[in-house]
Amino acid sequence: MLEFLVTSRTRRRLVELLWSGGAGSTAELARRVGCNYATVHKELAAMEQLGLVTSQGDKGKRHYLARREHPGYPLLEKLVESSRGPRPRADLSGADQDVRVRLRDAGAPLAVEGEAKAVSLTQTVVDGAALAPRDPSVARTLPVLLWRNRTKLDWDELAAEARTRGERQRLGFFLDLTAELSGSQQFKDWSRQLQDHRVKLARDFFRSDGTSPRARALAERRTPAVARRWHYRMNMDLDAFASHFRKFTAHELQRD
Question: What kind of fold does domain 2-83 have according to CATH?
C-alpha cells in the first residue's frame, strides 16, 4: 500500500525510516536510504514545511525525525508497519544470517553455522536489536549477550549508534530486560537514558504478533511488564526470557 501511495523512491524510503523511529542529519539519512544528498535534502525540506518532520540542531548539523504531533502520524506509522509484513525465520536474508553469526561470535547462544567479518561490538548489538522483531531466537539471546559483554560495552558509543540507527527504543527495552533478569542497576540506568517519552501507543514487537486476532490476544496476555513499559506487545512471556538467561549465565551470576 505504501509503495502504491508514495511513488517517489526517495520519499518512500525516508517515510519508512523516519516513521520506524529513525532520525539523523541529511547526510546520515541519505546514506541510510541509499539516495543522493540533494534529493534527500529537498524531500526533508518539503516534509518539514508540511509539518511532517521536525529538525533539531546538534553540533552544527540539523537532525530530522518524524513529528508525532502531526495528525497524519498514526496513519503513516500503520502504513509503514503494514508495508513490512510478517517475515518468517526461513526468509532471513544473507545479511540477517551474517548478524546472527556475529551475535554468536560475541557471546549469544545461537545455533548457527558460518563465519562473518569482524565489526565492532557496538554495531553487532544494535544490529541484533534491529533483527530481533524478525527472529525470536535472537530476542531471547540478546540479554545473555549484553550480560556477557557488560564490561566491554562502550555506553556512549552504543547510545549514539542506537539513536542514529533509530533503534533506541528497542535497545532500551533489551537493556531494561537485562536489568530485570540480572538485577543490574547499571543496565537499568542505561535503559532509562534511551527511553523516548513521546512514544505512547503499544506496538507489536514481533512481526507475527498482530497477524491474526488469536495472535494479538496471545500477545496481549503474555507481554511481560518490562515490555509494556516500553510500549511493546509480544507473544513471549518473561519466563521464556528468564529460563534462557539462567541457563546460559548461571556461572557468571554466581561469580558476581
Answer: Arc Repressor Mutant, subunit A (1.10.10)
The one-letter amino acid at 229? R
Domain extents in the chain: 2-83, 92-255
Print pLDDT tens along the chain (256 aa): 666 777 788 888 888 888 877 778 888 888 777 788 999 999 999 999 999 998 877 556 788 888 888 888 888 887 777 665 444 444 455 788 899 999 999 999 988 888 877 889 999 999 999 999 989 999 999 999 999 999 999 999 999 999 999 899 999 999 999 999 999 999 999 999 998 888 788 889 997 776 678 778 888 888 999 999 999 999 899 998 998 899 888 765 545 5
Question: Sign of dihedral through CA atoms 120, 20, 170, 191?
Answer: positive
pTM above 0.85, yes or no: no
Amino acid making up residue 215: A
Beta strands (DSSP E) in the chain are 23-25, 53-58, 61-66, 203-204, 232-233
Long-range contacts of 30-36 (CB under 8 A, 24+ apart): 35/9, 35/10
Strands 23-25 and 61-66: antiparallel
Grid-cell match 502531526, residue found: 70
